[in-house]
Amino acid sequence: MDVTLHLAQDPEADALLGRSPLAALVGMLLDQQVPMEWAFKGPRTIADRLGASGGGDLDAHEIAAMNPEDFAALLSGKPAVHRYPGSMAKRIQQLCQYLAEHYDGDAEAVWRGVPTGAELLKRLEALPGFGKQKAQIFLALLGKQLGVTPQGWREAAGAYGEPKAYRSVADITGPESLAKVRAHKQEMKAAAKASGK
């Protein structure tokens, strides 16, 4: 995996997301209750604070094995990685523990060689912290920007898999598309509020 992403709108953070499958998964996990760019800058901040070697990558085994209080403190430092650094630290460690147990710590193995979109969606939904919507958005990101296109991936990703949908991070390729996605999210919030949900 070595592509150019523009999710964090920060060259170093985006470079990590484009080369590290684990960073991309962690960014997706963090993408809730904070601005998208903040969420996707998180993996780079974590890597920097861990003193990650080799260009600042993340290691699932290392994170999984850390003392939970130490890892929570690492995410809580200023600036905090997330609005809820303690609970997100726990979720990231759960994700890394799952990857270590089921994929020998190799995040890319979640999607490498998977024959169908339906199977890939099932694998993504099994990840701690990934519900159906988050799994579908990540599946759309894999297909649209990372070249992971098993048979039926668009269908498995639902509306997020549609070309030029501008519904999620899967469609962000720069500031213009980010603005379109943000506008779509605001419309959805307004519609939900109007319907009393």
Mean pLDDT: 90
Helix content: 55-70%
Straight-line N-to-C gap: 39 Å
Biggest beta sheet attributes:
none
How much is the radius of gyration in Å?
A: 16 Å
Topology as H/E string?
A: HHHHHHHHHH
Helix count, DSSP H or I runs of 4 or more residues: 10
Low-confidence stretches: none
Please identify the structural class as seen in this structure. mainly alpha
The count of DSSP E runs of length 2 or more, i.e. the number of strands, is: 0
Shape: globular
The percent range for strand residues is: under 5%
How are the SSEs ordered, and which strands pair?
Elements: H1 11-19, H2 21-30, H3 36-50, H4 60-65, H5 68-76, H6 85-103, H7 117-125, H8 132-145, H9 153-156, H10 175-194
Helix pairs in contact: 1-2, 1-3, 2-3, 2-6, 5-6, 7-8
Give your account of this protein's structure.
With 197 residues, the chain is mainly alpha-helical. 58% of the residues lie in helices and 0% in strands. It is built from 10 helices and no strands. The N and C termini lie far apart (39 Å). The model has no long low-confidence stretch (mean pLDDT 90).
In short:
The chain is mainly alpha-helical and 197 residues long. The protein is built from 10 helices and no strands.
Q: What attributes characterize this protein structure?
A:
single chain, 197 residues, mainly alpha, 0% strand, globular
